[in-house]
Amino acid sequence: MSETLNLTLKVWRQSSPQTKGKFVTYQVQDISTHMSFLEMLDVLNEKLILKGEEPIAFDHDCREGICGTCGVMINGQAHGPDRETTTCQLHMRRFKNNQTIVVEPWRAKGFPILKDLAVNRSSFDRIITAGGYISVNVGNAQDGNSIMVPKQNADRAMDAAACIGCGACVASCKNASAMLFVAAKVTHFAELPQGEPERQKRVERMVAQMDEEGFGGCTNTYECEAACPAGIKVTTIAKLNREFLGASISSQKEETQLEGNG
Amino acid sequence: MTQLDAKIPSGPLAEKWTKRKNELKLVSPTNKRKYDIIVVGSGLAGASAAASLAELGYNVKVFCFQDSPRRAHSIAAQGGINAAKNYQNDGDSTHRLFYDTVKGGDFRAREGNVYRLAEVSADIIDQCVAQGVPFAREYGGTLANRTFGGVLVSRTFYARGQTGQQLLLGAYASMMRQVDRKKIQLFSRHEMLDLVLVNGVARGIIARNLVTGELEKHAAHTVLLCTGGYSNVFYLSTNAKGCNVTAIWRAYKRGAMMANPCFTQIHPTCIPVTGDYQSKLTLMSESLRNDGRVWVPKTAGDKRVPNQIPEAERDYYLERKYPTYGNMVPRDVASRNAKEVCDEGRGVGATGQAVYLDFKDAIKRDGAEVIRQKYGNLFHMYEKITGENPYEVPMRIYPAPHYTMGGLWVDYHLESTIPGLFVLGEANFSDHGANRLGASALMQGLADGYFIAPYTVGNHLASRTFEKVTTDHPAFEEALNLTQKKTEQFLSIKGKRSVDSFHRELGKLMWSYCGMSRSEQGLKEAIQKIRNLKDEFYKNVKIPGKGNELNQNLEQAGRVADFLEFAELMCQDALERRESCGGHFRVESQTEENEAKRDDQNFCYVSAWEFQGEGKPAKQHQEPLTFESIALTQRSYK
Amino acid sequence: MNWVKNFLTSTIGRKFLIGLTGLLLIGFSMVHLSGNLLLFVGPSAYNEYAHNLHAFKLLILAEIFLFSLFIAHIAIAIQVTLDNRRARSQNYAVKKSKQGRSEWTPSVIMHISGAILLGFLILHLSDFTFELRLKGPDGESPFDKAWRILQNPISGPVYFIGSILLGWHLWHGFQSGFQTFGLSHSKYTPWIKRIGIFLSILLAIGFASLPLVAYLKKWGVL
Ligand SMILES: Cc1cc2nc3c(=O)[nH]c(=O)nc-3n(C[C@H](O)[C@H](O)[C@H](O)COP(=O)(O)OP(=O)(O)OC[C@H]3O[C@@H](n4cnc5c(N)ncnc54)[C@H](O)[C@@H]3O)c2cc1C
Ligand code: HEM
Ligand code: HEM
Ligand code: SF4
Ligand code: F3S
Ligand code: FES
Question: What is the predicted pLDDT for the residue at A262?
Fold first, then answer.
């Protein structure tokens, strides 16, 4: 059952956003196949600390595939070889003894590197800030069951809402496009009656922000879908295109800027 | 001595909150924009509070240590959120939810608080639906419900297995809307390292920018701590790696009292530890116990693979000991029994620290397809982590620390013993007593943030006169220097052990002595060992890197240092509470059948600990608990 | 008309234009192919078609429209390709698909197949429309001219490659255009994909058959 592996790791090391990075090769021994990928990095880091070297910085938190904090390129694949799996859920039994593993950070203009494998994804927060919400103040809500949502729509909304904001779509897309992330949020709200009032403005603003952040455009290569740990489908991208097209053509011109945007 | 005044309104239970809301002072709409509020934490409690306060017009600053507020640990909650909607027409009511929660908490929570929680629970669902939270629906389009442990009605709302995620994304979106309106300023990758008091009132914080390492001063008129639970004092828990006690511990050291720190919940169904490298434990929803049967071999040391152990040699110990509830006994009972059989040497798996959760009979009865529909995603997750197929081999499970009922003491207004310091969500001690029922933490976090803090914080602002305080105030300098020194101290130790190794050792200690069962002797031993470990930490820890850069080890060092101090208080609290109640099991206090024995005569109180200075023992205060609407009973699940 | 500008400069808007021009170009290609296939029917059929075509009064307008389609398609495509490059700050040392596809999958090399198509088109237009090279004898019939050019040692092979790459380009391009327009549907999308594959094979084989047959004739096989 439990076996151990010896591995060669080539890890991207970069001490700060400004400095130039490079690959550094490490050997790790006796890695149990029951370890998760991040636990394997923990083991390496422990070794580095005791040797007086700087451990590898990488982002992680929940370590159960839901918070979207972790994520690195493993041998050229976002979150490693498994489908619908985050880096923290990837286990070492997926690797072979004496294998070489190349570990790189997400690379995208919209995700500047902070240190080693950690990147800055606040561009995603700014995209959500640009309308990725439903404007309803606390205290204004009517009874939950007064808004009926057909199960099919609710399910589709849930499918899209499952996005964990990890950025693997951007990382894996050859254009570093954030379309799948944006599409997931737009679809989530477009499928629900609650999303209707701000539907057009939302998609226009979110797409504009996405472009502003320096993400590439989608050329329908569908790699993002394969890399997405939350199983978001590229049909949401079609939906986003449709929403954006429809909104661009039919939304009314804004006469005066109302207080804020909320 | 500070008198603990819980500020519970007088009058009948059902009218208390309405009455209080009418009494609370209001801030005029034009004045609201003159007040600054700091919210530390962006989980359900923090995000909902920040959004609703900003909606009212206050200027809010939100802090979280993650790279995005959406990643707060609330995201990990799977099961669901309770609300007394009675949509299923099965006789649910505010009173019933209130009663279940107090009873589930083994009568160690305040009636007034819990009733209010039940009262606003229905509003939470409405608010979340309006925000676009994609709750599960029936074919007709109405909201769906499921049943959760410990209750007889269907009142749990859910969004697939990702309820916490969807609720948090709803609160996060509301918060980002206020960022859009420039009413909220966001500080992600910032860790609060100290609380700043001016004339005894909370007026700001010191936070470290985790990217640049810079220490920042932030001033405000009030501070809300929504920083979650401290299960990571056990090192291995179902909590995210970053969950910590730091924010509330620093507040404690500034004068906020810590209540019931020993009340921790150990969840019975988690994937067991596989080795020393284990970094965290994963929860398997307790709904699995609806169909899975828990067993271990009858004889100790039986190392056969499970499928070769014949029926006659299996011990379905929960069914044997609790014929009425069987596998569905409450969390604390299930956890304790698992530990017991493992201690007898009957544990299974490579480590002997696990029991089987077997679906063989359920699959035989209903067919694999039905089981797949019910638990497919959980089985999938289990297989991903363990590499074993639970359709063929029984799951191995073991209890793991999961939730902490203890936290900073707060009154009915959620205000701590430091005026102007409010504490919301898992970080406070308020509503779950000695044991939390499933699906009610999410409810509490959102109740605090959406429906309670907006009123009570306004009252604080309206009823105090505030001197003008900027970050130039000497109190900020003092706190900043203190924090600076601490950082420098950590970096200067240059010892031989990693921070993580200390944390692991502390975790093992706490798990053995202050985990599922606790004894006087053990706790005393633990306190000594913790002190030794703490001494060693300050002599021998090794933290590479510098203070003025992204330094994950330095972050961790601060958290572990606080856990080391906190652990001692936790053991002290456990030592002092010589009764068994809820998640707290004292071996000295059990019935003849080895069940937990509560002692209402002597321990029907909240114990609140006051910091007395470094190296001095904390001072205990007691807030007596009185029950007017329900009678105290001993729980029995036979 | 600020909104028009906003739309057309957004990533989605630009992709929309590529798709629109691309799908219209497919329309042209089909008409063009059916005309070209008349080369197999015989001199009189083809010459008559060519004659009628040139007799069409508004041909110049149609040609201008056609050329602007090409220019728009190509210009935007180049711009988008460059922008998308820039969006990846630095290339990965190792990159591997999770769809289990190769580096030559049509969708991944659209810009490459496109660039080669551009090269083919330049040659093709200088051969036929602008007659910059390979000038034939005066009074040569369109039929003879076509076969002559197709048998040329440079043009023949390039046309062959160009035709195959057109198929390659459209294998992805056709269904991709629909996705860009947001036309994705659980019932129809599988059919769109099938039709796209069918069309791209048809166009590739159709066009490629001409230089192929020309060469087979040249080598005396046919
Ligand atoms: C695996 C799991 C499953 C669960 N399932 C359920 C369930 O089904 N139903 C249910 O009701 N409950 C469940 N719970 C419990 C529930 O999820 C939590 O109790 C609740 O979400 C806590 O919310 P919170 O807002 O108080 O804290 P958290 O969500 O933990 O948020 C804490 C916030 O504080 C910030 N923070 C912490 N320290 C600092 C600092 N020093 N400086 C700055 N920021 C800081 C963090 O960045 C974060 O934003 C579950 C818990 C776990 C672990
Ligand atoms: C002549 C030079 C050409 C160039 C440089 C070119 C380039 C491109 C590029 C870069 C793209 C977008 C990349 C992508 O979506 O992956 C594209 C898309 C496309 N092209 Fe071309 N192309 C050319 C010719 C043609 C021709 C002749 C046709 C049709 C007969 C065509 C049809 C299409 C279609 C349908 C798309 C898909 C549009 C979409 O996905 O929305 N292209 N082309
Ligand atoms: C491989 C076989 C092909 C042959 C034999 C062929 C033949 C011709 C001929 C004879 C003309 C001149 C028409 C005229 O002005 O009388 C022409 C023009 C043209 N061809 Fe082709 N063609 C081929 C492939 C293609 C392909 C694959 C494309 C790109 C999609 C293409 C695009 C064009 C264009 C744009 C013109 C100019 C149209 C105009 O000026 O009106 N051709 N072709
Ligand atoms: S769409 Fe998928 S890959 Fe992209 S951020 Fe969301 S979860 Fe991650
Ligand atoms: S991989 Fe990229 S090209 Fe589009 S379909 Fe996905 S965003
Ligand atoms: S650490 Fe949370 S998803 Fe991996």
Answer: 44
